[in-house]
Amino acid sequence: MKFFLTLFLFLAYTLSYAQDPAKQKQLAAVRTVEVPKIDGVLNDACWVNVPIATDFFEIRPVPGRVETKERRTEMKLMYDDVALYVYARMYDDKDSVSHELVSRDNIGNADFISIIVDPFYDKMNGNGFFVTAAGVQFDAKYSQVGDEDPNWNAVWESAVKIDDLGWTCEMKIPYSALRFSSKDVQNWGLNFSRRIQRTNIQTFWNFVDPKVNGFINQEGLFTGIKDIKPPLRLSFSPYISAYANHYPANIPGVKNTTARFNGGMDVKYGINNSFTLDMTLVPDFGQVQSDNRILNLTPFEVKFNENRQFFTEGTELFNKGDLFYSKRIGSIPSYYNYSGVNNDDKIIKDQTEAKVLNATKISGRTAKGLGIGIFNAITNSMQTEVEDANGNLRNVETQPLTNYNILVFDQSLKNNSSATFINTNVLRQGSAYDANVSALLFNLNNKDNKYFINGGAKMSYLRGEEISTGYSYTLRFGKQSGNFTWSYNQVFADDKFDPSDMGFFTNNNFLDQRIGLGYNVFKPSKWYNEWQNWFNMSYSRRVTPGDYQSYGIETGSYVRFKNLWSAEINANYDAKRNDFYEARNGQIYKVPESYSIGLYINPNRAKAYNFGGNIRFQEQQLFKGKSYNFYLFQNLRVNDKIAFGLDLNFNPNYDFVNWVTSQGTQAIFSKYDRRTVENSFDAKYTFTNLMGFTVVLRHYWSDRRNKDFFLLKPDGNLTNYQGTTLTGTDRNYNVFNIDLIYTWQFAPGSTLSLSYKDAAETYDTYYTQRYNKNLSGILSSPQNNSLSVKVLYYVDYLDLKSKHKKI
Fold this sequence. Notes:
Elements: H1 2-16, E1 26-28, E2 30-31, E3 57-60, E4 73-79, E5 83-91, E6 112-118, E7 126-132, E8 137-142, E9 148-149, E10 157-163, E11 166-174, E12 185-196, E13 201-204, E14 220-226, E15 234-246, E16 257-270, E17 275-281, E18 346-350, E19 356-365, E20 370-379, E21 382-387, E22 393-399, E23 402-413, E24 417-428, E25 434-445, E26 451-463, E27 467-479, E28 484-493, E29 510-521, E30 528-541, E31 548-561, E32 566-574, E33 577-579, E34 589-591, E35 594-602, E36 609-620, E37 625-637, E38 642-663, E39 666-688, E40 691-712, E41 718-720, E42 731-747, E43 750-764, H2 771-780, E44 784-792, E45 795-796, H3 797-806
Parallel strand pairs: 1-14, 2-4
Antiparallel strand pairs: 3-13, 4-5, 5-11, 6-7, 6-12, 7-8, 8-9, 10-11, 12-13, 12-14, 15-16, 15-44, 15-45, 16-17, 17-19, 18-21, 19-20, 20-23, 21-22, 23-24, 24-25, 25-26, 26-27, 27-28, 28-29, 29-30, 30-31, 31-32, 32-35, 33-34, 35-36, 36-37, 37-38, 38-39, 39-40, 40-41, 40-42, 42-43, 43-44
C-alpha cells in the first residue's frame, strides 16, 4: 500500500510539473488592505490566500525544463493604492545559497530573484526589480528588443532572509517608480526570474525561449488590477560637494592647491501618467570613474564609455539611430577654436572640458504607443589662459556657450515593430557654426518575430560661414529567430554627412555591405550547454569617387561547457585594401592583407578563485608585421565582503607600418615596434548592502620605436625615405590612475560619497623598453590629487506631504 501511495504522489507531482512552455501564464491580481512588513519574513497574514506563481522554466542550461521540486520558486503578488508587494520563497540548500555583498546595481557572486513588469502591456518596454540573496538591489529598464538599461534607478524597498528552506525576499515597489495608465481595470505584462549562481541555472515563470528574438515580448500576464491611480511623481535630490585638489604646477601666479564648493539639485517630475521630466541643475560629475586613456596612433578619435549617470539613465529613446554620443556634452566637445592663440603665446592653463550648467530630459510613451523624448543641455564656454611674449596673461575663448538638443518621436507598431523620427541640433553662441542632424528610422518584424527588416535615412546640416548638407542611409534585413539566423546589412554615407557635433563619428563617403550567418544550439549535449557559431563577410567602397576600400571575412565559435567554463575561437582575414585616411592628407595608402586568430577562455565565475583570458595573433603581410596579445585576469573572493581583481594585458607588435608624420604635403610612414602593457587592480570591501568602498588602480604604458622610414607615393605604395633625419617621432606614453570611492546609502535614494583620485600622464619622445622604468617614471612624475565629499539627499514630495498632514 505504501508503494502505491508513493507512486501516486510521484505521478501527481510529475503531472503537476508537466507544463507547456509555449502557453502564456497568468496570475490574478489580489488587492490587499493589510500591508506586509518588508522584513523578508513571510508570516504576514495578508499573504495566506494569495495565488502562488511557481513551476518556473529554465532558460539555461536546458531551455524549457521545469525547475525541480527541491529548487522550486514560489512567488506571490499583491497591490493596494500605493504599491506592489512581492513575496518570494526560493527553496534550496541553506549552505549553498550564494550571497556576496556588492554595491547597489551589481549582482556579484549571488543568487537573485526578480520581477519584471510591463504596465502598459505593449510587449516592448518594462521595468525590472532584482534582489540578491545578500539583499543588494538592482533595477533596470527594458526596451523592445531586450536591451537592458541598468543605469535606470528607482527608490523601492526590499529585505531578504536565509533560512533552513533556502532564502526568502519581500519587496515593496511604490507606484512612483512606475508609469501606468489610469484605466479602471488593467492587465500588466509580468515575469519573474531566478538565478542559482553556483549552477548557473536561470529560470523564468513565463518561459523565455532563447531562440526567439526579444525578451519583454515573452512575458506572462498580471490580470484584473482595479482602481489604482498614478500618484504625483515628484522628487528632489539636492546635493552639496567639496573638493580639494593639488597639482605641483609650480608656476608663478598659479596655485598648486585649490578648493571649491558646489551645490545643485536633480529633479524628477511625473508630467502625467506616461511622461517624466528629469532635470539636473549645476551638476557635479567630479566623482565618476576616470576614462581609460590610451596611446592612439589611428587617424580617428577614441570612443570612451560614459560614466555620468544623468547621461546614461533612461536614454534609450535618445540613443536611437546612433546620433547621440553623450561625451560630446562637456566632456569631449567636437569644436575647439584656438584662433585667438598666437604663435608666440604660451599656454598656461588649457581647459579641455566644458562645465555643464544644466540638462533636462522629458521622456515617456502614450497609451497608443507613441514614445516622445526631449533632451536639452547647456555647457559654459571654455577658456584657455595664455601668456604673451611680454608676460601678460589673458583668457582666450576656445569654445562658446553651447546648447545641445534632441527631439525623438518613436511610434510602436504591432509585432514589436516601430517607426522613429529623431533630430539632434547643436547651437553655439557667436560666429561658430551650428549643426543639425535628422533621421527617419523603421524596424519591422513579422507576426512570429522570425524575420525582420529595419533601417533608416539620415541628413546632416551644418551652418556657418559655409553650408554643408550630407546624407546617409542604412538597410538591414534577415532572420532573427531560430537556430539558424542570417542578415544582410548595407550602410551608405556621402562625403558631406557629418553627425560629429553630437554623435561619435570617424569617417563618411562609403558604401558598406555585410552578410552574416549564425547557427546556435541551445539544447545541451553530453559535453556542452550552449554552442554558437557565426560567419560574416563584408565589402566596402567609397562613394565619391567609387573606389574599392576593403573586403574581409570573420568566423568564430563559442561554447559553454558542462563545468560552466566557456571558450571562444575566432579568425579574421582582411584582403589588401585602400585606406584613404591613414595618410592624413587625402592620399591613398594600400594596406597589405592580414589575418588574425584568437582564443578566449572564461572560467566558472562562481568559484572563489577564478582566472581566464585570451591569446590573439595577427600578421600583416608587408614586412611580415606581427602582433601578439596576451591577456590574463584573476579574481579572488576572500569572503562575501572582500574581493580582489587583477587584469594583465601585454600587446607586443613587431615590424608594423603606419603613418608617423608629415613634411609639408608629404606623408611619412615608418616601420616600428610597439609594446603596450596595461595592468589594472581592483578591490572592494562591502560593509553592508548599503555601504562599501571600491578602489581601482590602472597603469597603462605604450610606446612606438621607429626603425625605418618611408615616403608614401601617389600610387599608394611606399618607397624608402631619403629626406632629412626625422627626430622626435618615437613615442612613450604612460597613464596612472587611482580611483577610490566610499559610498553609504544612509536613506532611501540618499547617499554620502567620499572620493580620492590620483592621476598622472606623461607623453614624451624618449623611450625605454623596461616596464619597471616606465612605472617608476610615471609614479615620480607630477601627480594630480583630488579629494572630494558629496552628500545627496532624496526627498519625495508625497512623503513630505504625508508628514505635514501628521503634524
